[in-house]
Amino acid sequence: MTIAVIGTGAMGSGLARLLAAKGIDVAIGHRDPARAAALAEEIGPRATGGGSEAAAKLADTVILAVPFAGVAEALKGLGDLSGKIVVDISNPISPDFKSLTIGHTTSAAEEIQKLVPAAKVVKAWNTIFAQLLPSEARQGRSAPVQVFIAGDDSAAKKKVSELVTATGFEPVESGALVNSRYLEPVGEINIHLGFFLGWGTLAAPAWVKS
Q1: What does CATH list as the number for 2-196?
Q2: pTM beyond cutoff 0.90
Q3: I need a surface site. Which of 18, 40, 188, 201 has the fewest CB within 10 A?
């Protein structure tokens, strides 16, 4: 199994490192192939790096690890995504990180699904800071960090849930893709707690069943 990770920022590089550390092959893509290749060389033999379209072709699951503002341009560079799972980890945040740019009547995930209607978009990891991606950052917790998963294709959600479990997180079934309208504000309040209210970047939301 090969997972494509598009983007080499904090979340993209963190997810690529984590997947490789768990024995999962990763194809890293970037509009600048040299940046992806450099990250892959740093990660080691489980990773390859190059152009975004080349990376997407190698995988059935593509993690879109780019800011929402750059999603449309990034998708144009991925080629045909028909039948592929596209994992959206973004939050549509303002430049000052203090508000969402869209919401209530749509979500980043739904807008991405409109751009790639033949793909299976799944929302995941949008409530997690990059600092929580390394396994060692989550050691000593009383329970696994939760990752909320929303999507309209049950098989795609199952595959993403298995990936979440394999990387040491707890998947939380969160319903249809439309529920991303609620998950993205959860990501935004976590940003407020972490950055503006002093909780730090190891903060993460958790839903508790009684």
Answers
A1: 3.40.50.720
A2: yes
A3: 201
